[in-house]
Please model this.
Amino acid sequence: MLPKNLSEQANNNKVVCTVFEINKTYANRNGKYTVLAINGPKMLVRYEDGKEANLRMNMQERIWENILAEQEAAAAKQKKKVSRHGPKVSFYIKTLSISEEADLAIPGLKKRQCIAQLDANFQIGDRLVYYAVESKKFFAVATITAEPKKGKARDYLFGENMDGKVHLYPIDVDAHVVTEALAVSIEKVEMESVANPLELLIEADKYHALNEDDFELVAEMVMERDAEAEDMDDDVEEELEPEDIADSILGAEG
Model:
């Protein structure tokens, strides 16, 4: 008796084994088809558009196995992508008003916290990309790591109501470009989930939602610039002679 999903056909005293079964549907690079009959090493199939063809089973078997492998790889990639952030993770652009280049080293990132209105309702694991409204550049990526504490808006000069309360969310800083020249210009980014970003991102202290693909695109660009800045710093240190480093340390201590 044949196995459930295995057909055997005799051909010149040889046994041809195949995964194909009559009336089952498979696919090749031309599209999906249904097996109508199996004749020796070939099978008669009908495509979805009604066309019929005689195909060599050994070749079609390899093609079908490749298609299944591609589908499994795509499913595994999607599963990994979902598990990395979790199904409930949200993504936001956080806008800030920054007037000087040195201000890209903003206190909130140094203190590992971000400030939001009480109704923001962010969750642990939510991701943020920081955007400077004056220079129109993305410069930092962060992840919310814990439940917020309350603070006074006046203490942080946040929002329009200085007498109100705000939420202080602990964060991990995934990337931070301090030099404005290395920050990512919004003109270099094409986002599908944010319509007219130059018009939308003009007000500071706001959070704007975006989809995961757009977030990953911006975040990757910021991280690359952050890595470039670190490489530049390393190159500068390597160029310094030992006596230069010693003089620098003594000068700082003096």
